[in-house]
Design brief:
Distance between the termini: 10 Å
Number of helices: 10
Bound molecules: phosphoenolpyruvate
Structural class: alpha/beta
Strand content: 5-15%
CATH topology: TIM Barrel
CATH superfamily: Aldolase class I
CATH architecture: Alpha-Beta Barrel
Largest sheet: 8 strands, parallel
Length: 260
């Protein structure tokens, strides 16, 4: 872990309807009141239709959660049926956007160019962008992961105006570890985190926060954060239950307190 404040983001994906999302937000509020995370910044990324209610509950019950969108369209407005703009998200009180999650890349044909365009739109609007990168299993089998991730980073970040650099967080999410129960080893995460920091620094983003995502849970979070040199986590499945999400948050918090 660098000296940056840890960040834990819960990606709820296409789970939890309005009622369930509000319930989980409230449960998190109660748990965080009893077990406050002193050092860790916490963000949740609900489905679009839940965002308004989650933002309201967070504000009215003073729950220490930021709210992210899982995706956004890079255009300002117009004929983009089914899409949502950065201005719409800002109006709702959203502060973060996940950009280029591997599911968007694989299932919705989001190529590097679209990721770059989206990332630029997000930061230009003043929102924080979590740039997701990571290799497929066949790339890892051929030891091509460093080159793959470097390409994704360069494509998205090369030439980024320096005014926007502080709005960027990078999430390393090997595709083979997402939702599979297979976690990358501490050593694999450590090596990739170092590689990401080196490539990012060469692009002007020295000190950028690097998160890990891929089957993180309450049991493995402490070991990953200790060995992996990450600044926090992007969590899918384990963020859908308040207790398991809290356990991950506490691992980050304890680790940060120890290292300070
Ligand atoms: C994710 O989708 O970003 C993710 C990391 O999912 P999971 O934690 O379920 O592997």
């Amino acid at each position: 872990m660098s000296t940056a404040k840890p960040l834990v983001i819960g990606n709820w994906k296409m789970n939890l309807d309005l009622v369930e999302a509000v319930h989980l937000g409230q449960q998190l509020g109660v748990l965080l009141k009893n077990h406050p995370a002193e050092h860790t910044q916490i963000v949740v990324a609900p489905p679009f239709v839940d965002i308004r209610s989650v933002v309201s509950i967070v504000a009215s019950e003073r729950i220490p959660l930021g709210v992210a969108a899982q995706h956004v369209n890079p255009h300002d407005n117009g004929a983009h049926t089914g899409e949502v703009s950065t201005a719409m998200l800002k109006r709702l009180g959203v502060e973060w956007v996940l950009v280029g999650h591997s599911e968007r890349r694989a299932l919705y044909a989001m190529d590097d160019a679209a990721v770059t365009q989206t990332l630029r739109a997000v930061v230009r609007s003043g929102l924080n962008a979590v740039l997701c990168v990571g290799e497929a299993p066949e790339i890892r089998e051929e030891s091509g992961e460093d080159e793959w991730v470097a390409r994704q980073l360069r494509s998205a970040l090369d030439g980024l105006d320096e005014r926007f650099r502080e709005l960027i967080t990078i999430a390393y999410e090997p595709i083979w570890a997402i939702g599979t129960g297979l976690t990358a080893t501490g050593e694999q995460i450590h090596d990739m985190t170092l590689h990401i920091r080196t490539v990012a620094a060469a692009l002007g983003l020295a000190g950028v926060r690097v998160l890990y995502g891929g089957s993180v849970n309450g049991e493995n979070a402490t070991s990953i954060i200790a060995k992996g040199d990450v600044d926090g986590f992007l969590v899918g499945g384990a963020s859908l239950k308040a207790e398991s999400f809290l356990a991950i948050i506490q691992s980050c918090d304890d680790c940060y307190a120890l290292k300070r």
